[in-house]
Amino acid sequence: MRTTVGIIGAGPAxxxxxxxxxxxxxxxxxxESRDRAYVEQRQRxxxxxxxxxxxxxxxxxxxxMDREGLRHDxxxxxxxxxxxxxxxxxxxxxxxxxxYAQTEVCKDLIALQLEEGSPLLFGxxxxxxxxxxxxxxxxxxxxxxxxxxxxxxxxxGCDGFWGVARRAIPAEHSRVFERTYPxxxxxxxxxxxxxxxxxxxxxxxxxxxLLSMRSPVVSRLYLQVPEGTDAGSWADEEIWDELGRRLExxxxxxxxxxxxxxxxxxxxxxHVHEPMRHGxxxxxxxxxxxxxxxxxxxxxxxxxxxxxxxxALVHLEETGSAERLDAYSETCLRRVWQAERFSYDMTTLLxxxxxxxxxxxxxxxxxxRRIATSRAAxxxxxxxxxxxxxx
Length: 391
Ligand code: APR
Ligand code: PHB
Description:
2 domains; FAD/NAD(P)-binding domain; six-stranded mixed β-sheet; eight-stranded mixed β-sheet; 12 helices; alpha+beta; D-Amino Acid Oxidase, Chain A, domain 2; binds P-hydroxybenzoic acid; globular; binds adenosine-5-diphosphoribose
């Protein structure tokens, strides 16, 4: 098999890249190891930055998002039983975010790709990327029990944190920057209307809690739990009790309970692989970087990477200049590190480390009060949350 751009992975990064290339008249093949149902059901965050919304619309993939997504103009911070709303458009000159689940973004992009786009193969597991330093890189893969080779002009590894693409970059050219956090998130989906109309990020002495949503009738909620917690060790009633405690306010707000339909634990990690390019192999999305979920930057970063790649390749085709393609890693990493910083700040602002000292607790509360009382501090949060510019 032969194509211009071989894409490994059909998460948001790989799927959007295939769509952007299709729109630019560049052919590609997407190899995805899992089946379609799995990819369409995997639960992930659900906040789209303004820039991500604009990109999906421009790619012709925003129809259902615009009908079913919920535009959010702010979030609420809770601490010490107080509440403080951060008004995004007022602080950023008009930006907002969209609540639209990543699973839905994937479903929309898969449907478009299968209808109009280049081949998208499910059950096709990439085994290795070869010849990244040559003019003709290859992806060895297994599909329907047979081994095959995809010959490409470029390979883009969109295969997530556990993928194979990153391994094709020799260790002497790689640097990894990493931090793990001594806690995770226990996440639930529940059939109950959200108890607040915007997301609520709560700092509490017992740990962080987040109230989010998937639709007007489905809530998504999270609790900070110790690293390595088994989701099954929490009974449904215990989860609601704990959410109630951590989200409690002095003004009598109350949390509606409903049937829990899913329960899982997400570990928390910051990870960046540099560079994001080796020869004709490019890394995009989680294959190159991971952020802790506080602030929901993962999907938005993946979108930034593939837009940068697609624009650079179009620039090469139109002008003959590889300048932008050569700058891919540097261009992406500038934005990646801003999102890493933002996610780290949000995480340390709101979570309680198991060994937190009383001094650190006071500093954390002071940071929150600063955001609640200084327009400059609040603007910094609002700009980070609604997203950093692409160029
Ligand atoms: N061959 C083919 N496909 C693979 C392989 C392989 N060897 N290894 C992994 N994959 C597939 C996975 O099954 C998955 O569908 O690559 C895809 C990677 O998708 P994601 O993990 O969703 O990563 P990405 O597209 O970069 O999206 C980033 O996902 O993890 C979240 O929070 C993160 O929202 C962010 C987004
Ligand atoms: C989610 O809805 O899953 C979500 C929302 C905001 C976050 C993380 C996850 O910061």
